[in-house]
Structure formats: structure tokens, C-alpha cells
Amino acid sequence: MSDRPPPQRDAIPLLTSSLFIFCFGFRTFDVVVIGAGIIGVTTARQLLQNHGDLKFAILEKEQEIASHQSGHNSGVIHSGIYYTPGSLKAKLCVRGAALLYEFCERKSIPHRRCGKLIVAVDQQEIPRLRALYERGLRNQVPGLAMIGPKQIKEKEPYCRGLMAVDSPNTGIVIYKYVAKSCLDEFWDYGGCLITDFEVAGIEMTRESPMGSEGMQYPVMIRSTKGEDVYCKYVVTCAGLFSDRLSQISGCSPEPRIVPFRGDYLMLKPEKRYLVKGNIYPVPDPRFPFLGVHFTPRFDGNVWLGPNAVLAFKREGYKLCDFSARDVADAVAYRGPSGVRAQALDRDGNLVDDFVFDSGTGTIASRILHVRNAPSPAATSSLAIAEMIADEAAKRFGL
Ligand SMILES: Cc1cc2nc3c(=O)[nH]c(=O)nc-3n(C[C@H](O)[C@H](O)[C@H](O)COP(=O)(O)OP(=O)(O)OC[C@H]3O[C@@H](n4cnc5c(N)ncnc54)[C@H](O)[C@@H]3O)c2cc1C
């Protein structure tokens, strides 16, 4: 499919909590999903698709969906090369990419299967590159090949390297449009989005809300403004705040979230011809990130990034400190930033795989937490949603 410009989807109306009360006149639901990033929205859509007879709501603290990680990322559709064979990341990325391409085709969401090269520029990197290739094969990534300098030049005329992994199934998309398209379907099936609702408390209540029968909706969710929503079950998909959401529901704050900011630079317009597809380095095994890479965007820009620095604020996108010394000649101006939610275990180790967790205490059987969903969670979102929906059906007996 196409690389035509994205449709004008920003015109999608935003629902506020007051509009929600006006539209629906009640505040009880079977299942509430907290967080309208790509994981929350795809999960809510999948749950509603599987259980059309139930009432669902998504609660989001911002005015708009996908305002944080899902709207501040590289926009790469990863193919699944890097991840430990058998891990959730490996399985869900490969399946997620396939589902995402299918979804984008069906919904006419602009995307491009522009491919990717992981390029070794130094002899010392070649064993690691080969190991990556083997890993990709074990993960059943489609179309992988090892290529030499001549083929690198054929694919990326301005790229020099000794050897590369060629991944033709890697692509680009704007994840905000994927999330908005999923939200459209969620609305079509009768789901409800409540924005401007920052969850401040989740607890079991002794009383049901006025007008509801008995104790049908025993979980009370309260906003920072004192509004209440009642439900039977909760799924939290709060990204950078997943540990805090867990904690306020009486569940464990571990693993904790550490925010890592990623900044991008953009190539000067007259230098954009240098890059055709995604170009990545061989990752440094000491770090959990994939390395600074070139990524083409739909507006014609080419981004270079993201770096990874500890952020001083979970949703802080401004750079306080910047050294111009390392800015290469071809790089024109600062691009956008994102903040990654990376989970850290009790011993201070970065948690590599996706983590989904039930609750503890009295609410345990009624709550499911997405605790760690870093990259490639946007790629994997439709597969993660399938998994969470199955798990929720089992645990909650939906
Ligand atoms: C710089 C960067 C580059 C990346 N590149 C890629 C890439 O190329 N490909 C890829 O697959 N992945 C990439 N990722 C990862 C991907 O963006 C994330 O894994 C994914 O977006 C996580 O989605 P999410 O829904 O879990 O989190 P988010 O998008 O952060 O959504 C969480 C939502 O919860 C809401 N929320 C939080 N607390 C509350 C509360 N108390 N009450 C109500 N709502 C609340 C937030 O407002 C937010 O909308 C990248 C991430 C970053 C930061």
C-alpha cells in the first residue's frame, strides 16, 4: 500500500466525561480499560469484539488518545529480529506485525513496507550481526537475508557497510492513526471513551451506584476531580504510569517504571535522498535499545534517533541540555522527542520482556495490569490485545 499522506483524522471529535454522562446517562460498565494509548485502545476493541454483549469503557487522563508513547515514537513496524526466541516479545512482534499490515490494508491506513538494513561497519560487529540473523530465523521473521557490500549499495546507494541483515518486512506507519482507527471500531461496536479522566483511586466498594442492581459493579474508579465510574473488571494499560496504577489499586509497585527520553534529529531536506528505508546499527549488547537509526517518515522527513537518556519527568518531552558538538553536518535541526516506559525490577535490572500481571489483595481477581510494554509494543499491539483479551476472559470468566 501506498505512501500517500495520512487522512485528516485529527478531526475525530474528542469525547469528554461530561459528554459521556450526557450520551449514556450511566456510569457502570462490565469492563473498564485505563489508558488510551495503543495498547489500551487495541485491547478495548478486541475485548468488545469478543464480548459484544458486555459494556466497555476506556478512561484516559488526556483530552486526546495516543498522546504519550504511542504518539511519540519512531513509527517503525518491527519484524521481530532482535528478541529472545520463545519470549513474548518475539512471538507477539512477529504476529503483531502481520496483523498490523492486514489492519492497515483493511482500514486504508497509510503505511509502507520500506524494509530495513542492520549494517555492520566494523569486523568486530559481524559475529553479532550473524547471531542476530540466526535469531531472526528462529523467530520466523519473513524474508531475512545476509547481504554483502554490493547488495547494501543496491538497496541503499549512500550506505557503506561490510555486511548487513536485510529485513524486507520492516515498515513504517503512524501509530496514532492505527490507534484512532481502532477507536473508531470500538465506538462502532458501542464502546465508550471518557477523556479528561485521570484515575486517582481504584477500590472495591461496599455499595453499588444509585440505580444499579445489588453489588453488580463492585469496583469503583475515582478520578482526580472526584468523578466515579463503577465496573466489574479493570484492565490497566497506563504506559509510563503502570507502576503507579498498580500501586493505587493495592497491587505491587514492582516492577517500577524508569522513564528514558529519546530525542530525534532530522536530516536537512536537501540530504533526504541519502536514505531510502530504515537503516540501523548492530545494537550494542550492553543496552536494551536498538541504537540510533535512520527512519523515513510519511511527510518526507528522515529522522535520526532516538538516543536514550534517563528522563527527569515521565511525560517530559523537552531537552534541557544539548551539545551541538556532536551534530553531524548533514543534520539540520532538532526533531521531536519521546519518553519510553522501561520497567526495572527490585534488583535494579531492566526488565526485557513484556509483563502482564494480575492484582493482589481483595481486588486481585478483578484486575489485570499491563506492567511493561516497551518497544516493539506498538508493532505488537494487535497481538498483545488478543492475548490480554484471552487472559481477561479466563481470569474474569467473561
Ligand atoms: C522514542 C520512542 C520510540 C519508539 N519506537 C517504536 C517503534 O518504532 N516501534 C514500536 O513498535 N514501538 C516503539 N516504541 C514503543 C511504543 O511506542 C510503546 O511500546 C507503546 O506506544 C506503548 O503503548 P501504551 O499504550 O502501553 O503506552 P502509552 O502510549 O504511553 O499510553 C498510556 C496511556 O495511559 C494514560 N494514563 C496514564 N496514567 C493514567 C491515569 N492515571 N488515568 C488515566 N489515564 C492514564 C496516558 O495518558 C496514556 O495515554 C517507541 C517508544 C518511544 C518512547
Automatic annotation (TrEMBL):
It catalyses: (S)-2-hydroxyglutarate + A = 2-oxoglutarate + AH2. The keyword 4Fe-4S does not apply. SUPFAM superfamilies: FAD/NAD(P)-binding domain. Pfam families: DAO (PF01266). InterPro entries: FAD-dep_OxRdtase, FAD/NAD-bd_sf. The chain crosses the membrane at residues 12-39. It is an enzyme of class 1 (oxidoreductase). Keywords: FAD, Flavoprotein, Membrane, Oxidoreductase, Transmembrane, Transmembrane helix. Its EC number is 1.1.99.2. GO terms for molecular function: (S)-2-hydroxyglutarate dehydrogenase activity. Residues 30-390 form the FAD dependent oxidoreductase domain. Its cofactor is FAD. Belongs to the L2HGDH family. This is L-2-hydroxyglutarate dehydrogenase, mitochondrial. It comes from Leptobrachium leishanense. The gene is L2HGDH.
